[in-house]
Amino acid sequence: MGFAMVELGKNGEGGYGVWLLARGMIAGGGAAINCLKAESPRPAIRQPAAVCWGEEEEVKVEEIQVDPPKSGEARIKMLCASICHTDVLCCKGFPLPLFPRVLGHEGVGIVESIGEGVRELGEGDMVVPTYIGECGTCENCMSGKTNLCQTYPLQAFTGLLTDGTSRMSINDGGGGGQTRLYHFLSCSTWSEYTVVDAHYIVKIDPRIPLPHASFISCGFATGFGAAWKEAKVQKGNTVAVLGLGAVGLGVMEGARTRGATRIIGVDINDTKREKGMAFGMTDFINPRDSDKSISELVMGVTGGLGVDYSFECTGVAALVNQCIESTKIEIEKIDELLTHEVQLEDVNKAFELLKKPDCLKVLINF
Ligand SMILES: [Zn+2]
Ligand SMILES: [Zn+2]
Fold first, then answer.
1. Among 3, 142, 280, 333, which lies 20 to 30 A Cα-Cα from 322?
2. Which residues belong to any copy of the Enoyl reductase (ER) domain (predicted)?
3. How confident is the model at residue 24 (pLDDT cuts 50, 70, 90)?
4. What distances in angstroms separate CA 262 from CA 51, 63, 178, 241, 274, one per listed residue?
5. pTM of the model as a whole
6. Ligand 1 center to residue 232 CA distance, Å?
7. How far does the centroid of ligand 1 lie from the alpha carbon of residue 218, in Å?
């Protein structure tokens, strides 16, 4: 879509490769680009962006107008962006068919200008736009258990910024007017410039290679966080990962970092074997090579025990059961639930048994 990333060379700081948009921006180690001074006027910028005009329509690179940031916002000059399956879903009208829309929710850039009241960001900062904000004070932000901020939540359903308006528009074609463009997930990263609410912006170390910064802004971080922060995989654990895309590979890296000793990757694509190995995978299963179910295959690899943790990373609902059945909980924990048994003809006893304080589950035998 005109946003292929090209490795242009190495910068001088730390030897990181510099990856830039094919449109030819030059950057190095977090240097500010075209950065306006705070006192400078901030005009609207005309520049290219990837615009989706309707469900299943081909995405077009159009010249659009990006307004200056309003209070509490920052305008970012994007350095590179990446694609995630959610962008594909957006083109199909997910979660709502809001068109025309500027796509993209992964990417990294540099703050070009800030609106009034923005304190924690400055022009020239290397940043990643995110789609879930953080106020730092709401119940969820304070919980330490979830980052689903209640004040700055996922802006998936409006296609607008926090104040209910858009900073992006396009000439309406001869009429002299401007057609409003919807944002995507507070980000719209497939645009040379984008405006984002400062609560949805993360400042990062400029030494991070740009592709890395872009890739960790969605899928990979989801997987990594699931293993590292949510499940808190422990040293010596066994882990199964169903689906070795960016999310699944993120899980592997999170599990490996946590000290998992056995990481079993499951994918119907054999080319994922090599990728998995690079992320610490110890065993690979291609379910198409066998008539057995995935859970049976995982059991086979683990000597019939199952794994400590199993992660479903494909989004295929039918695999959730396979995922659960691959874990040790099947044989160790669920057995603990069985406290009473009755024959079918005594089924009424089951109702009485269920009232007993020591009863968890009553098995009805035939
Ligand atoms: Zn994504
Ligand atoms: Zn919050």
1. 280
2. 54-364
3. very low
4. 44, 50, 56, 11, 16
5. 0.74
6. 22
7. 5
